[in-house]
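PT: before anyone asks, these are the final sequences, not the draft ones from last week. 559 residues across everything. Please model them as a single complex and drop the result in this thread when it's through.
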Amino acid sequence: MQGGMERTTGEKMVLNFGPQHPATHGTLRIVLELDGETVLKATPHAGYLHTGFEKLGEHLDYNQFIVVTDRMNYLSPLSNNFGYVLAVEQLLGIEVPERCQYIRVLMAELSRLADHLLWLGTAALDLGAFSVFLYSFREREKLYSIFEKTTGARLTTSYTRVGGVFRDLYDGFDNDARDFITNLPKALKETHTLLTRNRIWMDRTKGVGAISPDDAISYGLTGPCLRATGVAHDIRKAEPYSSYEKFDFDVPVGTNGDVYDRYLVRMEEMIQSCGIIRQALDNLPEGPFSLEDNKVMMPHKSDAYGHIEGLIHHFKIVMDGHGVQPPKGEDYCATESPNGELGFYIVSDGSGTGYRIRIRPPSFFHFQALPHMLEGGMVSDTVAVLGSLNVIAGELDR
Amino acid sequence: MKSEEIYDVLVDKFGESILGIDSELAGDPSIQIAPTAISDVCQFLADTDTLAFDSLMCLSGIDLGVKEEVLSVVYHLHSMKNHHNVVLKTSVPKTDAHIPTVSHIWKTADWHERETYDLYGILFDGHADLRRILLPDDWEGYPLRKDYQEPDFYRGMRVPY
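LR: through. Structure below.
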């Protein structure tokens, strides 16, 4: 910035940003030390929503914990469900049927769209672009009805189970999903006309909150925030899981690592996700939607009520010490959630509850890197940068 | 590189500080490191070209149980350049839980270590700002320890509800 001297008053002012502030979209706090309008120092504070998820994991059995994962990144609960059961399955050494893998990919990509759409709406709203918010929420609403029809809930989906998903896709799913991915690119085009070459949007986001690739890796940034710096790291490509190696998609990257590039990366990721969803719908294999091993998966309700074996399996799987029991060992499993690397580190002592369940949420480390992106910038950029990181308080504090 | 090869490289370089490799159990094999050497080992893993572990994916604490009185720290490292992973482990007694920091090697370790300190009470020597992060500053005890008893009251508010 040129002519910075006129703006300095020589007096420091401390400004409390949050914990309740419209732009935090959750409960988090930043203490800003200002000189005029320049941010000298930013100190992020987390923990307002700490609910002890990791401790809960030591008391709930492996399937019960799925409910807790819904509440982490509440914009894309299906991705969390998915990442968690994948870690347990890896520890158990089982692989789910191909149809199930495709269903999970479908759900993960749809929730990536839901997350990015909400991000787009709110990030633009924070910078004063109100109409974008309306367009993106209109699209997101359609997605939520698909989620509701599939899982029975809009937010607390708990769709996956260790060994599969709890029910198959509904009859009209193919139509609904195809409708959605045909219309979404049109809606995104509208957004591009509203923002991408918009002078105010560009001024507010270009060169703001930039971070270098090396710093981004060192700070543990992942997902769109890392890719915006030009590092083409995507776990779906680097270490494919759940049949991702069978899908053809690009990993969009930025160049400057600023707010504008994060916006462009997320916009392009949505188009790529639509492509993945189309491929998954075209090639959706027939067959069972879950593992048909009743030592792992709960038997179907009609079996539990109609057959003695079903009843016994149903009883055993919910009884402590008889259900899902991974062998003694440990495992770290990372998936590419909408925000970045969502890792679950599970230590099993051979019993029905985890000995230690550690969650590595992407938001925690994005929030950590915030001072690096804010210091030296203007106070008004705080909102732009915070918005671009998409810090979700639920997974930040767990 | 595979974990076993990395283990051999580390044994050549650090000798007795590398305590062993655990590949019996289900999941990824992990390399046991003496707590005093962990910072040097990590620096070596990050700086050596053939290894180039440029990112710390996860740093987790574990309480190995009331009987053992041992706390462990697990490091999951990844190399963006060479596309390989390694798991390091180090253990300290609960009564003297000191481990050298790795926050000067990977900046992300700063908050990882603060969280581990917050929930397990492991002290990371050399950390610039070791404060509680998720719990209030005046919280007593370390909740993820297996012998943790939650307090009845916190500032006049009932805790169990």
